[in-house]
Amino acid sequence: MVASLIKYARMWASLGRYTLARELSFRGNFLVKISVEILWLFILIAFFSTVFGRTKSIAGWDEWQYMFFVGCFFALNGLIETLFLDNCNEFAELVRTGDLDFLLLKPIDEQFLITCRRIDWGCALNIPMGFGVMGYSLYKIGGPVDPLSIPIFLMTFVSGAAIAYSFMLTLTSLSVWMVRNQSLMEMWWLFSSLARYPREIFVGTWASPIGVFFTFFLPILLVVNVPSQAMVGLLDWRMVGFTLIATVLCLGASRAFFRFALKSYRSASS
Description:
Elements: H1 2-24, H2 27-52, E1 57-58, E2 61-62, H3 63-97, H4 100-104, H5 110-116, H6 126-141, H7 149-173, H8 175-178, H9 182-194, H10 208-217, H11 222-231, H12 237-264
Antiparallel strand pairs: 1-2
Helix pairs in contact: 2-3, 3-6, 3-7, 3-11, 7-9, 7-11, 7-12
């Protein structure tokens, strides 16, 4: 087991070096992508700074607690886009052209090869930028950080990334039947847009059923909410436990669905 994990880690590192070399072959495009991501972060910060210039809190989150949430979203979304988004976007094209055949013949786990073969380095800067916003927000909040909050944050941050990856893998798998995945990626955009806001904003409004559904049935609202709460003094242990359970269930269900989709795939030679 350990030897297998080491092998996959080395392979992922090699794929990362290869994709970085490809990115740097077109430096102008690479720099434009980074510039767009920096601009997007400043737009988010400017927008919420304007909002908090007119109110003291949003659904129980004060300004710097919410800015921590924004930083957490930016870092986690950047992680997903860096590692998985491009790969999942290309899956439909692999199905349509029959090039998926060549990947399935490789002596390696199909899910790993399909979802992890490329790294989008143009989005990688989002991760440290997001953590920078989180660090500055904690500084502005002030007061000592509970040492227990840090491991809980890291654990739930990874869990949130795993839940988001599970949703993306499930949407990607549908391309086996739908062939084109433009509408599926629009659905992913919807999910990522929901994750951008605390689930508390839905409580006590006409949208309460939406909040319940996307918390307990399709738990996309847990992805950023729970790790952020762990660090800003809003920790709910019940939601931490539910997030860990949801992570295991989502990963297991998405992998089972992915393998079921591959069984339904008809190769180019058939």
